[in-house]
Amino acid sequence: MNENMNAPGFAARRAATQLVHGVLQRGRPLDEALDDPKSPFAALDQRDRALARAIAGTTLRRLGNLRAVVARYLRKPLDPRGSLESILLTGAAQLLLMDVPDHAAVGVAVDQANADRQARPFAGLVNAVLRNIAREREELSTFIADTSRDVPEWLQARRVKAWGAEGAKAIAEGERNEPPLDITVKTDPAGWAEKFGGRALPTGTVRLVPHGPVMELPGFSDGEWWVQDAAAALPAQLLHAKPGMRIADLCAAPGGKTAQLAAAGADVTAVDRSAPRLRRLTENLKRLGLEAQTIAADAAALHTAPFDAILLDAPCSATGTIRRHPDVAWLKSEKDIASLADLQTRLLDGAVRLLKPGGILVYSTCSLEPEEGENQIEALLTRNPDLERDAVRPEEVPGLESAINDKGELRTLPSHLPNPEPRLAGLDGFFAARLVRR
Ligand SMILES: C[S@@+](CC[C@H](N)C(=O)[O-])C[C@H]1O[C@@H](n2cnc3c(N)ncnc32)[C@H](O)[C@@H]1O
Predict the structure, then answer these.
(1) Cross-referenced PROSITE patterns, in alphabetical order (predicted)?
(2) pTM score, two decimals?
(3) So what's the ipTM on this one?
(4) How far does the centroid of ligand 1 lie from the alpha carbon of residue 276, in Å?
């Protein structure tokens, strides 16, 4: 073993580089790598894990800009196979965006290159590029202030088309911040907010600045609350679930919304096509002391007795969750949006078939793409004259009244819920529409 591999911060930075490399070269979602008990990340102590996660997250959050910065100092494009690009990107992220001393960022990046057979011949290049970046930090900081470069070009172009240049900029600014930890509590949001030193949002979510592992926070093992973005908590609320109501949650796993419906006392049937994900839902409900029937099936082809209410939180491109999952921007492609939109159409038609006359359907996605939100509902209403929108009322979403569009649908954006403390600002981009069957 190279003695520099024992240098302080080496293991954390190498894990960060591997996390970034996994996303960029192997298409591996960041969460999957973070949860892998066999990964080098899993072997780190808590402090190093936090550092590795912060470096990888910052790198992916600003990837487009960091790639443009690194490219300025290269004569030809990097060979994408080795870890060289990820070493340079994580190094640049530390120099330009994190409070890391130059010698630590540059020195450990060079050590990483030396410890990697493919990158070793380029250790001198790593040193030169990162030293140049450190030297030109001031000019580069202005360069990377341009938010339009944070996400891939195809995604930026869609955003400008859907939300205008200013809207796209506001979304990207919202995505630059590390998100808060949002939790849904069974009861007493104000009391839990006080206990955590956080705040209770008017919609009921308890919001705090994350610190340490979630599982170690008070109330987790007692099943008093679960992690759920403030926007993700809204679709289930729109159903106003109560005891005696028979509700189907058609794309239910891992169960955040099922838990809300079950906690309200409804009789919930949780459907998901993925049996392993449904097992996770069952485990989650068990921790929370809540119950639901489960069915592992394609919800579009389900035949059961009709329901009083249906929640369809459909699989989607997840482009509304980029501030929590910055890898999504680089793992998805424009083709995915078209195929997911087809699946959503099929699932919506299946949901309508399972709805009683007078029944309520809430459709939601955590996407910013109109094809997965507004356009789906427009087309569904054309196909089904017996359905109509039941407009979301301002008093149902206190603090987020401006997220209701002129059709009465909910469209949250990462730029909503501004806060002077960036770590307490924003929420995921969600679309939700409520429909009634006449
Ligand atoms: C956005 S996630 C649901 C999140 C969940 N509602 C929650 O709040 O925890 C979408 C889910 O849809 C499931 N899914 C995808 N296609 C499906 C289908 N045809 N039928 C049923 N479930 C499906 C996926 O396995 C995934 O668990």
Answers:
(1) NOL1_NOP2_SUN (PS01153), SAM_MT_RSMB_NOP (PS51686)
(2) 0.95
(3) 0.99
(4) 12
For residues 205 and 183, give the distance between their C-alpha atoms in angstroms, rounded to a whole number.
6
Say whether both 214 and 93 belong to one domain. no
Question: What is the CB < 6 Å shell around ligand 1?
Answer: 251-257, 271-274, 277, 298-300, 313, 315, 347
Could you identify the atom of ligand 1 that is nearest to the CA of residue 346?
Answer: 19
> Does residue 257 have a known ligand-binding role?
yes
Catalytic residues: 366
- Residue 316 within any structural domain of the chain: yes
Cα–Cα distances in angstroms (integers) from residue 409 to residues 199, 217, 261, 397, 406, in the given order: 26, 35, 20, 11, 7
Domain boundary among 118, 145, 172: 145
Residue closest by Cα to atom 6 of ligand 1: 252
252 annotated ligand-binding residue:
yes
For residue 146, how far is its CA from the centre of ligand 1 (angstroms)?
35
Q: What's the count of helices (H) and strands (E) in the chain, helices before strands?
A: 16, 12
Check which CATH number belongs to the domain holding 295 and give it. 3.40.50.150
Q: What CATH number corresponds to the domain at position 137?
A: 1.10.940.10
Residue 272 known to bind ligand: yes
Cite the beta strand spans of 220-292 per DSSP E: 225-227, 246-249, 267-272
CA of 341 to the centre of ligand 1 (A): 14
Mean pLDDT by 10 residues, the chain (438 residues): 69 96 95 92 93 96 97 88 93 96 94 93 96 97 97 97 97 95 98 96 96 90 97 98 98 98 98 97 98 98 96 98 97 96 98 98 98 98 98 98 98 96 95 97
The CA distance from 194 to 206, in Å, is 9
